[in-house]
């Protein structure tokens, strides 16, 4: 999924109102506190994790995943594709319904709902943040750009009420994995037309076909999800009510609330983890987080839009110098930075590439071990000597062109204490190594709510810690955000990297990879493109997600599992434990889960 996340994710803290099964007549309730407010329920438009995380529980797509990452039927009961994976056909279930906020039936879910959803996403005037993913469909890009105006020419059609067909631009064997993302979700066209721009603004201006209905939606106060009694798979919805309470200090106060028995889950920040692990009463209540496939990196902005006081034009001159970029690339001590999240085993969380290890492989060879990416994968980018060598070259080349020290605006989300701490560490570490005569890193607290839309998207940064989660099972899910018109730091604007056809050199490499159908050739070309992106220091890879410690009564191994899309955000299938899982219990359960997952994947491949 393109899925984008800048650590504005809500902090989960859990209340257990009742541990018994709801079939016994008691209501199970799961309560959370959060600090990052959502601005819309419109899942066809947003790409922010905390927004589609809510929508994922309200609306179902064609497929979902089980706890081991195996594809399972969702609104589609079966599917097939032609020999070259350019035409995909889905048979829909006939017992799925759209209901209103009060649980009253509005309409059946039919194939046309998926057509209407995709038409909304690909209509440029709707400004969908996920439209670029949907352009995998034939003529999707042409329709979005106005080159095709008749949507019937786009590769999606309702063959009949319960049969849906996609025709794609090119062979796409991983298309099934793309359907786990919000841009391919359905919408009732009649309701959408009636609501217009009000769709998704309130719980009343929304239709539900998923496991939950939004019973209350009061921004910066509370939102409550209740079990959808008409849901086609309601027997697998084991938590009856989910209550989100707003607290602007959620990340800070949650551990204390947990200890007081007021909540049943909290992230435990690095600043207090030692005290927890060395306390007899607390140590069995905290465990490691499970790693995920989010990738974290520092983006260097080639289109600075921040205030004049931070000298954006001077930054632009500097960032267009490769030696300047390489000095930052080699100067970043990622272990020191990572210790703000994982003080005990920080090396385990580091990633030298944008695409994490173990994401995809070709004939048993991990993608990150393909040449020339393997050389980057297997070597730490932190190198003091190289950093200082590139510094001297940059200062010589930029003499009379740029003013030193270069001001480097580095904002962070003020709602995330660990991010704030890490930003301070990175500031001190880089300035100490490279010298304050060379760079002046300016740390600035950004908003806890709306950081993505107010800081990252408008380009109000020079250097920024950012992240990306995969949307489907192909390397392009990690390379696309840096292409022309992509989500990130506009590397296509870097001077000296434009080919004769007007495309950026990186774009040309990615296009060549996308044109390859054979997986071996395709992955090798993507590895070449990603290696170029990193070698030119357009981006500094940093870590994978999932680090840190939590105290929680949720069992992470009951959740639906997928490295991409919205599956992992669903509460469907989850229960609440009677007591928090200790780290020993977590490690034992993780080992068992990994073994069962390996067996499940092997069985699914046969």
Automatic annotation (TrEMBL):
Question: Is Mitochondrion included in the keywords of this UniProt record?
Answer: no
Determine the domain of life of the protein's source.
Answer: Bacteria
Q: Which UniProt keywords apply?
A: Signal, Transport
Q: Which InterPro entries match?
A: Peptide/Ni-bd, SBP_5, SBP_5_dom
Query: Where is the Solute-binding protein family domain positioned along the sequence?
Result: 71-488
Q: Where in the cell is it found?
A: Cell envelope
What is an example of a Pfam family matching this protein? SBP_bac_5
Full protein name? Peptide ABC transporter substrate-binding protein
Species:
Lysinibacillus odysseyi 34hs-1 = NBRC 100172
